[in-house]
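Researcher: Next sequence.
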Amino acid sequence: SMGVAEARNLGIKKAKGEYIAFLDADDWWKEGKLKKQIAFMKENNLSFTATGRELMNADGSTTGKVIPIPEKITYKMMLRTNYIPCSSVVMKKELAEEFYMCHDELHEDYIMWMEILRKYNRVYGIDVPFLCSRLSENGKSRNKFKSAKMQIGCYRYLGYGLIKTAFYFCAYTYNGFKKYGK
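Model: Next structure:
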């Protein structure tokens, strides 16, 4: 069967429009998300934006927790925590085609964002929780140990040695607790 990255890439290849938006199975958008996001991108001539999100319980009710997103996101900021929820992203099709997703065994979306940031310096956030993220018990991001291994793999893949990897991973873990902690 096809991995997540491969499935997303197939979607990118087959897409006919000017923009690509991702939406994972456990997530949903609030009304008007795409319209507002694309209008914002056109007004400001942007090729990549992401939005804030609201965390939802498994049954779809709100946890009451909203995770904001900075207006500008840089490569350096992203080393310390992943500010960009995949299902909130809208990007120009040609940008998606330039980078594609790879490495299902790692956080394939995080690596793609980092490679985009390495080349283009910054991407932009719209600090409105247009995305609803369901916290499922068996979702990829909830398996802490596997997720930790994948994140370490991302730093290694991006070319960091053990000391820097350890440093950024500590920051990443700390910020993760801040983000999801009760």
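Model: The chain has a mean pLDDT of 89. The beta strands are 19-21, 27-29, 48-56, 62-67, 72-74, 90-92, 122-134.
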